[in-house]
Amino acid sequence: MPETLKSESLTADIAGAPAPVRPIAYAPPDIHHERLPDGSETLRSRIALEPFDPSLAAMFRAAVARATTRTFVAERSGDGWRRLSYADAREKVDAIAAALIERGLSAERPVMILSGNSIEHALLTLAGYTAGIPVAPISVAYSLQSQDFAKLKYIAELLEPGMIYVADTAPFARALAALDLEGCEIVASRNGANLDNVTAFDDLTRSRPGAALERACAGITADTIAKFLFTSGSTGFPKGVINTHGMACANQQQLAQIWPFVAEEPPVLVDWLPWNHTFGANHNFHLVLRHAGTLHIDGGRPLPAMIGETVKNLSEISPTIYFNVPAGYAGLLPHLESDPAFARSFFRKLRLIFYAAAGLPQDIWTRLEDVAVRTTGERIPLTSSWGSTETAPLATAAHFHIDRAGVIGVPVPGVTLKLVPSGTKHEVRVKGPNVAPGYWKRPDLTREAYDEEGYYKIGDAVRLADPDDPNRGVVFDGRITEDFKLTTGTWVAVGALRVGALAAASPVLQDAVIAGENREFLGILAWLNPAGCKQVIGPDAPQNPAELAAHPKIRAHVREGLARWNAQQKGSSQRIERAILLPDAPSIDANEITDKGYINQRLALERRRADVERLYADMPDAGVIVVAGGSH
Predict the structure, then answer these.
(1) Of all helices (H) and strands (E), which one includes residue 323?
(2) What's the pTM value of the predicted model, to 2 decimals?
(3) What is the CATH number of domain 56-68+75-220?
(4) Phi and psi (nearest 5°) for 586?
(5) 385 closest CA partner among 445, 321, 334
(6) CB 371 within 8 A of CB 222
(7) pLDDT tens for residues 375-388?
(8) What band does 632 get if pLDDT is binned at 50, 70 and 90?
(9) What whole-number distance in Å separates Cα of residue 87 and Cα of residue 95?
(10) Residues 107-159: pLDDT tens digits?
(11) In the predicted model, is pLDDT for residue 500 greater than 70?
(12) How far, in whole angstroms, is CA 410 from its chain's centroid?
């Protein structure tokens, strides 16, 4: 868009008409909707799921054949990028796979990966796929941020790994010392701690692949375990979700059928999402494999101290699809809005903006559209999908144009949703070839997670966007376990309220939890977005979260934003009467947040019980923001 149009209405052209949407090819939805006698409903796609790759090893080898010299994966190395082609990856993967087979590793003695995303992590994962030996990527936070290593020790005892990989023993020395390593080989790219009996990663690449590897690869079936992915442990210790080759391959075929545009050009990703989570590992990493694309590993994070790395990477590499969580977009937006050169690089080749893992405030959606139109003259399609670690993860997707946040799409080919009445809502359950068979060594948890018809009980609620047209998709309606009642008996829809409150106080809030269960009115505990606060305060904004939380401009901004929100609401279940701005960050160790940015409502409230009591004090202290529009 010409510079002179930058002050125009952000999603409109000069004449006031909506800016055009950058073209993209979706498969039109065709959904069968059935109402059952017991009050339940089912939704499924009439689009048949086509045959899919027999294994992830076959998927990888097919990509190598299609794109021998193309860069498969790249990561930062100084001022440049260290790149690995598909051909070079195949050579190293086969050698490492042979090394895993030589060591007699198996599902009962898998490979446990403690380090984050890297080229070596990718190679070791693909070697496990090729050898039919499961890998288990573990949240880095359990090793580097935890004080007691309780989750890490629990996972290691459950898995009994035959090999543990770390990029460097130095930062992981304390974590490794906390584990019982008898019979377990430690592999490291660098032995910075000078630990004894550590195998160099490069030694694995010197093995010679042969007939044993080819037999193992040929013996992989849809039921062969590809990896163990661990849930965030929000309600206890993490659960080891069994991810099979069939689950993952079916899921990529489902994605390929609803996104035919991906076949038009190999996808180019710049992605930070951690591979111990299904979003980054299964959805994005496997998308690159399935279509022989290129993955640039982003060492940044949606955190004030690390967002600069993401901005640097996206300034050099223009992605064709961009994946992130809402917190990630909130962190990027101030940079996109203030730096036209960065915005031009970000949007140059972008065909789709994708969010998942949490609800996206409409304010962030609108700002993304605004800056896209200012930069390119076009709106870039925004979309979302829905699923979980147990669904590989894609279960629904909005493979049609949507103009607002909230719609999570329709069931993808091969998936059936069952909507079961639950109070005032409908709990959604999932069945399909992409659904996990259960939890490793926990038959009790497996029995609890599936109903008598084999549907996975995910714990979320949804509703039809249009009861008369299932092709318009379903709307996420919150977590069944998060919603609560006020003392009036009125239900509070926590998910929608949280998103609305964040938008009302934009851009200063990063996230929030809603308080009020068995109380007379609602309050929130909120974490601040430093970049957004700087927009409100100006260049002299403090960096310290406690100083930001006490700043009069920030407090006034939140108070006024929530008052405007309250003025538009009809009842007590939607009006926020008090707020506390938290002077810290959500804790991973205490399960308040996962390392992909999802806030655990109930555990955060439990941990911050003292702050909740401050919200409801008869005479609130000076740190509590009292919002107009309430009744207390």
Answers:
(1) strand 321-324
(2) 0.83
(3) 3.40.50.980
(4) -65, 145
(5) 321
(6) no
(7) 999 999 999 999 99
(8) low
(9) 13
(10) 999 999 999 999 999 999 999 999 999 999 999 989 998 888 999 999 999 99
(11) yes
(12) 19
